[in-house]
Each structure stands twice: as structure tokens, then as C-alpha cells.
Specification:
Helix content is 43%, strand content 17%. The chain has 498 residues and is α+β, with helices and mostly antiparallel strands.
Length: 498
């Protein structure tokens, strides 16, 4: 909660912007016309800007010249999107943050000094709530600084008892602020500002229970946290998109909280987020597009399966009314290419001729016919510098493990080269110790089966020979292959115990 107070206070104050102070004023008229009136005393700006918070940015929405010295009136033909806005001077100086909600006819008076006593709000109850939070936050922040300094001084003098007293007062001050925020939310739970404050609340994770055998359930708290992470965030309220709340939370959730989870687990929580956002089309679109891009572009092993899951359950289910048919077809094609080569899928058997045994290409090898526990399926192009570099590294690894008698993988290398003479010459020069196949003949279109037309070369897959399942579908550093296989075997043993 301390972090919440500081973060939101910084957002509301801006970089030296003014604070708000409520004074009773005449009620504004009830006209639905949008008209935002600002009187910025001592301001000489020839133009001021209205910007809205969106994700982690400020988006320019409007600008006006002064109607009179220091007076700026925004009166658009159509209402503004509800959200947290900032009034910005021509030198990019933020004057204040404020809420725009359904009532878009109000006045705010402030000055360039940021003095809370010089600000007046008329006809905007929600911005008065913002003000109350600011006033209390500034008051608490001043007290906290004083207490922190006193505590440091007491510790410096070796007076631990006095230091503990100041620490207790700091804790009490924070609890007081928490109580104030809870009352603010309870008084007007539907206010956007209240929902912002609620979204900043920390999740209380209970102590883990004991299992039947008396041991502590070590997974309980992690599961509880990721399951209840969004409890205080109303994902179906599209207004929150126009605040700084959602972007850091969604980033934290999918890049930290769920980072080490397997694809099936991540997909479960993706569905939870999308289901909760679905009642608002704007929110649903935001989360769907954010998640689709996140997992389609991710370099993390297994995340492509999350992307496939998202598309099959959303874009391909006619849920995205804003998408045209061409875009839907692109998603369908992407899934069609990716799904057969996801981790856990059965690797397509390839039977391709090998030049090493005969220039007539009458010796064919199957990717299923090798004997080691694992098979590295390696797509390369003899004319590709990166392929050459990586193939050389693979050869060093292969030879070193072979010499040590611990090589537990075979290599099935496929050349993506239509120039057979160049390819054969290349192999004679390199003297790779593994099976090298290629050419235009095969039992399948292997370039299509493994999506090489799209991903290009070099491309790497690792197949578990016993099950013929793909256990890796992204290229990793050649030196990391032994560690990857060791980790894979440890995980398989662990799964058997669960």
C-alpha cells in the first residue's frame, strides 16, 4: 500500500503540477454540453494541451488557445473518453491531473505554483474525491518524511527505543492512509478514481494449509496469488484503459508472476483475464490484442502454444467483431503453421535421401530411424553465414561429447538448398559427422511441415526418440543443449512423482 500511495501521488501531481483544493462553488448547470473550463492564474501559455493517460503513455487529445489571459476552455463537439487526463502547458509543463467522467461540464481554477490553497473545483464531485486523496497524501507524505528523518537520527545516536517508536508511528500513519482510502472507495465505489485506488490494493495471501500427510502445501501461496491477482481490478471497465493502472499490472502478471509456468497453466489464466474483460468490448479488445502480440512475439520456449490457444478460442471463434475476414484468415494460417510443431506434438517423420553414401541419392534416411534418446532436427542453408557458424558450434559439441562417451543425441540435418552440387561440395568440405539429407525428394514437404518457409534457416527442433514428441521448437545456443536435455529429464522425473 505504501507503493500505491506514492505511485498514485506522483501520477496526480505530475512533474511539479498543481494540487487541487475544493471550495464550495455554485452548482454548474445541467446541460449535457461538454465544456471544461480552466483558469490557470499567472499562466501566459499561448496554447495548452489536453492529454489522456493510455497504457504507459500520454496521448494528445485536444488543444486550445486562451479565451482570456490564463483562461482555457475545451468545448468539443463530442464528449471525451472517460479517463485520467492531464492539462499541459505549451512548454510541456503539466499543470494538473484530473478525471473526465460522464459529467463533462465543470471548472477548475489553479495557478502555476502548485499551491493547494489556490485551487477551486466547481461541479465535479469526482475530482473533489481526487482532491481529498491529494490533500491527505501530501499531509501524510510530509509526516512520513519527518518521522523517517527522526528515526534515522535516533538510530544514529544509538537510541533504538526511540527509533522503534518512530517506526511504530510510521506504521500507524500508513494504516491511517489505508483506512482513509478504504473509506474513499466505499463512499463512491463507481467512481473511476475509486476503481483506480482499488486496483492498487495489495492482495493478501493467507498462510499455506497443511496437506493430509501433515506437510505444508508449498504451492498454495503461489497459486493463490496468481488466481486472485485481479480481484481488485475491474477488467470489464473500459475506462481503466485510460489510466496508468492496467499496463504495469498486466506486464507484471504475464512477464513475472506467470513467467516460469508451462503453456497450459498460462493459457488457463489468459482465459480468466479475457473472460473477465469480455463484458466490455473495448477492454476485451485491448487485452486480446495485448496478449496475442505478447505470446506470438515471445522468445520464451512454449509461449507459441499460448498464442495458438488464444487464437483458437477467440479470433477463430467469431468473437472479434472489429476484425475483417482477411485478418482472421491470417490468424488461421498462422495457427495452421504453428500448431503441428508445438512442444508435445508428434514430430512429422521425414524420409529424405543422403548424399554421404551415394551420388545417386539411393540411400534414404528416416528421422525416426536414429538410435540415441534424442534427435536434433537441424534445418540449415549452406549459403547462410549464421547457419555455418551454428553448424560449426554443433560439430564441436557433438565431437566433444562423442569423445567423452556421453553423447545422448543424434543429428538429422536437412539442407534447404536447391543447388545440389553446391550442397554436396559443402558437405565434403565440412565433414559433418551426422546424417545430412536434402534435395527435392522426400516423403513430405518437410519445409512446410516444420514451417521453415516462414521461419527460415537456421531452425532447430529436438525430438524425444522414444515418444517422437517435440520437446524443443526454438533454436537455442548449441552449448546449452546438454543442460536443456538434463533439465528436461529432471522435469520428467518430477512429473512422475506428482
Amino acid at each position: 500500500m505504501k507503493k500505491s500511495i506514492v505511485v498514485l501521488l506522483m501520477i496526480l501531481l505530475g512533474m511539479g503540477g498543481g494540487l487541487l483544493h475544493a471550495q464550495k462553488g455554485k452548482k454548474g448547470n445541467d446541460t449535457p454540453k461538454t465544456e471544461l473550463r480552466f483558469l490557470v492564474k499567472d499562466a501566459s501559455d499561448s496554447i495548452v494541451y489536453l492529454a489522456v493517460h493510455f497504457r504507459d503513455k500520454l496521448i494528445l487529445k485536444d488543444s486550445v488557445a486562451p479565451a482570456a489571459p490564463g483562461k482555457y476552455v475545451f468545448a468539443p463537439a463530442t464528449p471525451y473518453q472517460e479517463g485520467l487526463y492531464m492539462l499541459v502547458g505549451q512548454n510541456k509543463r503539466p499543470y494538473l491531473n484530473f478525471i473526465i467522467e460522464k459529467n463533462q461540464n465543470f471548472s477548475i481554477t489553479c495557478d502555476t505554483s502548485g499551491d493547494v490553497r489556490n485551487v477551486i473545483i466547481v461541479n465535479s464531485p469526482e475530482n473533489v474525491e481526487v482532491l481529498k486523496f491529494q490533500q491527505k497524501s501530501v499531509e501524510s507524505q510530509k509526516k512520513a518524511i519527518e518521522l523517517r528523518n527522526n528515526r534515522a537520527e535516533a538510530k544514529k545516536k544509538g537510541n533504538e527505543e526511540l527509533a522503534a517508536t518512530y517506526a511504530k508511528q510510521m506504521d500507524d500513519l500508513n494504516k491511517e492512509m489505508e483506512t482513509f482510502i478504504e473509506a474513499l472507495i466505499a463512499a463512491n465505489p463507481d467512481y473511476l478514481f475509486s476503481k483506480m485506488q482499488r486496483a492498487y490494493k495489495a492482495i493478501h495471501v493467507p498462510d499455506p494449509p497443511k496437506k493430509e500427510d501433515g506437510t505444508i502445501d508449498s504451492n498454495f501461496q503461489a497459486i493463490y496469488y496468481r488466481t486472485h491477482y485481479w480481484d481488485y481490478v475491474e477488467l470489464g471497465d473500459g475506462r481503466l484503459l485510460y489510466t496508468p493502472v492496467l499496463e504495469p499490472k498486466i506486464n507484471d502478471y504475464f512477464t513475472k508472476v506467470l513467467y516460469y509456468q508451462e503453456a497450459d497453466t498460462i493459457a488457463k489464466y489468459v482465459d480468466m483475464v479475457l473472460d473477465r474483460s469480455a463484458k466490455d468490448s473495448v477492454s476485451y479488445r485491448f487485452f486480446l490484442e495485448w496478449l496475442s502480440y505478447k505470446f506470438e512475439s515471445s522468445k520464451v520456449i512454449g509461449h507459441d502454444a499460448v498464442f495458438v490457444h488464444i487464437v483458437k478460442n477467440n479470433q477463430m471463434q467469431n468473437k472479434c467483431k472489429w476484425m475483417d475476414e482477411d485478418l482472421v484468415r491470417k490468424y488461421e494460417k498462422r495457427v495452421k503453421n504453428l500448431e503441428p510443431i508445438l512442444i508435445g506434438k508428434t514430430a512429422v517423420e521425414m524420409i529424405i535421401p543422403d548424399t554421404a553414401q551415394s551420388d545417386d541419392f539411393n540411400r534414404w534416411y528416416s528421422s525416426y530411424s536414429l538410435t540415441k534418446p534424442y534427435v536434433i532436427i537441424w534445418f540449415y542453408d549452406p549459403d547462410c553465414p549464421t547457419c555455418n557458424k551454428e553448424s560449426a558450434k554443433l560439430k564441436i559439441l557433438y565431437d566433444s561429447l562423442e569423445t567423452a562417451g556421453v553423447r545422448n543425441f543424434d543429428v538429422y540435418a536437412i539442407a534447404a538448398d536447391k543447388d545440389l552440387d553446391r550442397w554436396k561440395k559443402y558437405l565434403k568440405e565440412k565433414k559433418f559427422p551426422w546424417i545430412n539429407v536434402g534435395g527435392m525428394k522426400a516423403n513430405v514437404d518437410y519445409m512446410s511441415a516444420y514451417n521453415i518457409y516462414e521461419t527460415g534457416t537456421p531452425s532447430m527442433f529436438i525430438m524425444e526418440n522414444k515418444t517422437k514428441k517435440i520437446i524443443l521448437n526454438k533454436r537455442i545456443d548449441m552449448n546449452n543443449i546438454p543442460q536443456f536435455l538434463q533439465q528436461y529429464e529432471r522435469m520428467q522425473k518430477l512429473k512422475k512423482k506428482l
